[in-house]
Amino acid sequence: MRHLMSPLDFSVEELEQLFQLAMKIESHPEQYAHRCDGKILATCFYEPSTRTRLSFESAMLRLGGKVLGFSDAGSSSASKGESVSDTIRVISSYADICAMRHPKEGAPMVAAEHSLIPVINAGDGGHQHPTQTLTDLLTIRSLRGALEGFTIGLCGDLKFGRTVHSLIRALCRYQGIRFVLISPEELRIPGYLRTQLENGGFPYEEVIKLEDVIGQLDILYMTRVQRERFFNEEDYVRLKDFYVLTEEKLRMAKEDMLVLHPLPRVNEIAVEVDQDERAKYFVQARYGVYVRMALILTLLGLAE
Ligand code: NCD
Question: 14, 156, 169, 172: least buried by Cβ within 10 Å?
Fold first, then answer.
């Protein structure tokens, strides 16, 4: 039995198979419409979500399976003090696979250790978000044709943004990728990631101003300032509008740069940018369903 805790749990070859399957599903959805007949996905979300939970549920329903679960800790027995390990033991007899999101780093890992069914980390605190990374990689692979040889700017909350942490770790396994890390001083990437970039000799630079580097980028990955992980509201208010991507700033960017964002967006991308050809974040959200369909099939051993 296999779980997905980190984007590195799959080898590059396995990821390639997963992406190929996702693309097959996109072009021939009818061939997969009954692959999961009789299977049940549990979505255990102890933290808010729109895309991740609903794309998981949509993925399972589109495969012919069924879904059950809860979308906030308050409506689960966590509010009575039940541990994640007890909850998953019980869910193991109600469902065939479980996607779990939790505000505590490592909680889905604890669940996986006590689970009799595959567990997918759907985001754990400020740590990792592997299925968003699968979505991001599939989007880049589809829109650029390859997962190598580009300069990616990651902009915004690089300290608490779990999607950024997972994406950097995943991209380090591909050739010719240069990272431009764009954030205010207070929201730079965690030390463990910087050490990883340095030890691996991966080209990266850390800058504060988006305008200084936007012209070099092939991909701009914008992120929201993660309000729920701040210790005080004052710091959040001071930093929340540090970056706002506008049409004016996009004039300095390459004609074919991709603008990605895991969403939800707050103010960091002006709504006017949605009309720009380079804005791909809604396309990206759509890829999230195909890649989760492919993931569910793979973890249930139903891929072929
Ligand atoms: C992200 C998350 O939950 O980390 N959202 C998502 O899953 N697409 C990003 C965010 O909340 O800012």
Answer: 14
